Amino acid sequence: AKYTSLFINWNPSAIKTLFAAKSSLLDFKARAYSTYERMSNLQQEARPTVVDQNSTSPAHSSHSIFILAQMDSLEISLNSAKDDLPLFTLTMSGSKVNHHNLEGDDNNSELNLEVGDFRLQSASYGKTLDKYRTILGLAPTASTSLLSVKYFKGSNAVHSCEIGGNDKLECEACGEIRLSPMRFVHVHAQVFTLIEYVTEGFFGAISASVASSAALALEAARATSTVEKLFFITASGFDFVLPQAAYSAKHFAFHAGSFTAKYRSHEGNIGSEASVSLQDVSLSCGQKMPMVASPVSMSITVRMKPPFSPGSEDERATRVDVSISRIRLLIARTHYAQAMHTIDYNVSEHDAFLREAQDRSGDGRITVNTIIQQITHAGVEYIEVIKRMYINFHIAELAVELCSKTTDDPIISLAAVNTTILMKLLPDQKQTKAQCKLHDLVCDDRRPLSTDRTFRRMIGRSSTDVRENEVFLLNYSKNTLDDSRNIEAKLGSSQVILLPDLIFELLHFIKIAPLKTYKSMISMQSLASSVQPSDTGTVQVVLADDGPDEVEACFGSVPGPAQALKRTTYRMESDNMRLVLVDLGNLESSGPFASTKKNLALTETIVVQGQMQANFEMVNERASNFTAE
Fold first, then answer.
1. What is the dihedral of CA 524, 529, 530, 533, to 10 degrees?
2. What angle is formed at CA 498 by the lines to CA 443 and CA 438, rounded to 5 degrees?
3. CA end-to-end span of the chain, whole Å?
4. 133-156: per-residue pLDDT in tens?
5. Which residues in 215-236 are b (16+ Cβ under 10 Å) and which e?
6. Which of 87, 400, 487, 558 places its Cα 20 to 30 Å from the Cα of 70?
7. 10 Å Cβ neighbour count for 124?
8. pTM above 0.85, yes or no
9. Which residues pair with 67 in a beta bridge?
C-alpha cells in the first residue's frame, strides 16, 4: 500500500467505542458461524458416509503474510478525551513499514519501521514556550533525521533476532530503536502526561480496555500482561534540554556524543527499569556558559514501580541512580538559583501547561464540567497518584567551582572523592530533601583579590595522617508550604579558616530571588481586575532575577497586610575541629569588611580546637527576599 499523506485524529473515548462496537460485531459473527456449523454437522450426520479410497487429504501448510506500506507523510493527533483538542502531535515523513507473520499465528510477528523525519510536539493551547513545544525532534546540529525501529513479538521471533544476547531469554517481545542526533525537552508534567496517555489512551484503547478508572484499568492490564518486553535504543548524538519552567526562557542543555539505552518492562508489580549510558557529555546554560570543564561519561539507571503496586510510599518511589567517574562543575550564582527554581517549577510542578488556566471553583453541584474534570486526558477516571522520587548521584572524583556572575569569575573551589548526593522529592509530605556526603573535602578561596593572602584554604585536613578518612555531611530540606529551609553541615576533624568577606559572598551566592511564575501572574491579573477605585492598598516593587533592569510590581488590595516570611535555619557541628579566625582589619577589600589601610598582610588572631556546634537563623520576606532578621 502506498499513501501520499495520512492524517489520524486519535481520541481514546472514540477508539474505545469503536473497539466495543467491533467486539459486538465479531461476537455476533462468531455466534452466526457457530449456528451455521451446527446445522451443517446435522446435515452431514443425516447423509450416508462414502469413503473414496483414491482420495488423499492435502497436508496443512502455513503461509507467510507480508504487509508493506509506504507513506510520504503521516500525522497523528493525540487528542484529549476531555475536550477532543490536540495534546500532542506526531509527524513522520518518508515512512516505510514492513510487517511479517505466519498465517494463523498471531503470537509471532516481526515489524520493521523506517522514518525519514520524526517529530513529537505538544499543543499550542497552553503557556509552554514555542521553543519547548517540540518534545522530541531533530537536533539543531543535524540536517536530516532518521528513525529505525525493529520489533519482534513471540518467543520464536525474539530468539531469531540478533540483538539482546542472553538478556532476551525471558522476554516475549523485543525491540531495537536507532536514532540520528535528536533533541529531547523535559517538561516533567508533560512527559508524565504523555506516558499516561500512551499507556492508557493508546495501548489501553487498542486492547479494548474499557475500565472506568485507572485502578481498574491497571488490574485489567495485570491480568492480560504476563510477559516481559525489552527495548534497545541507540543514538549517534543526543541533546537533553531541561527548562527552568515551561514558560521560562532559562534552561540547562546537556549534550551527549553517543547515547545507548536498555529498557525492560517486567511483569506484575515489578515495574520497569531503564539503563542509559552517555559518552562525551557536556553541560551549558541558556546563556551559552559552559558548566563542565571537560566532557564526561556517565551511566543512569531508572527504576519505576506501577502507581498502584502494593507496598509503602518508599517502595513505590521512582529511583534514579547516576554514576560519574570524574567531573569538574562550574556553577555561577545564576545557575544555582536556576537549579533551585527548576526543582520547584519543573520537576515538582503538577500543571502540564497543555491548556489555558481554568477556574475549578464551583458550588459543589454536579455539572458536565465537573464530570469532565474527573477524567484524565487519556479517558480514565482521574486519580491523583503522588509518587516520590529519589535521585542518587555517585561521583568518584568531584570538583566544583562556585563563581560570581559568570563562570570566568570564581569565588571558591571544592574538591572531594567518593561523593554521594541523594535528592528526595516528597510531594506527599510537601518537602524536598537533599543529602550530600563528601570524603576528604578541600575548599580553597579562588578570588583574584586573595592571590597574595596567607590563608586561602578554608577547609582541609587538620592533621597529616592520611590514613584518616574525613567525611563532610550536608543536609538540606525545604518545606513547600511555607518555603522554609533547613541547612545542616557536619564536619569531621578538619581545619576551618573563617574569612568574613568570603563568607559574605557565599551567603550572597545562595540568596535566591523569587521567580515570576505563571500562576502568580494570573493571580495578580485577577486581583487587579477585582480592585475597586476606592480600595486602598500597597504597591511593592521587586527586583527580578532575570536582570538588574527588570522589575516586578505587585499590588495588594488589603491595607497594611503582614508580609509572608520564610525562615532559613543553619546548623553546623564538628568533631575535634581546628577553627582559625583571621584578622581582616588590615585587608584592602570592598564591601562591609572594607578597610582604609593598604597592608595586605593577614595575621592569625584566634585558634580554637575542639568540638563545635553553631546555630543561626535568617528571616526573609517571601515576596522580595529582603532580609528582615
1. 110
2. 30
3. 74
4. 999 888 877 766 677 888 888 877
5. eebbebbeeebebbbbbbbbbb
6. 87
7. 11
8. no
9. 99
